[in-house]
Amino acid sequence: MTENSIPRDTPRNEPPSADEDVAKLRLQLKHLSLEELEAKELVRWDRDEHVVRKGAKFGEKNTN
Question: Where are the residues of the annotated region Disordered (predicted)?
């Protein structure tokens, strides 16, 4: 299967969320990539533990 033939709704191999709050934020902002959420400091991607945690600006939910 080529990358172009993978359905858009197929989950990417992204790390799990550390808790329910992080999972809900990721669902609410699913139009943003994990990298974008991390750049906005909404989440912190712990690559060593392969998990996504709350970032410094988690409560702000700034999507601009």
Answer: 1-20
CA distances from 25 to 5, 33, 35 (A): 28, 12, 14
SS3 6: coil
What is the reported pTM?
0.72
* Backbone φ, ψ for residue 45 (5° rounding): -90, 105
Q: Which residue range is the domain that position 25 belongs to? A: 15-60
Domain count within the chain:
1
Sign of the alpha-carbon torsion through 41, 61, 25, 54: positive
In tens, the pLDDT along 12-58 reads 678 999 999 999 999 999 999 999 999 999 999 999 999 999 999 99
Structural domain includes residue 44: yes
CA gap 54, 30 in Å, rounded: 16
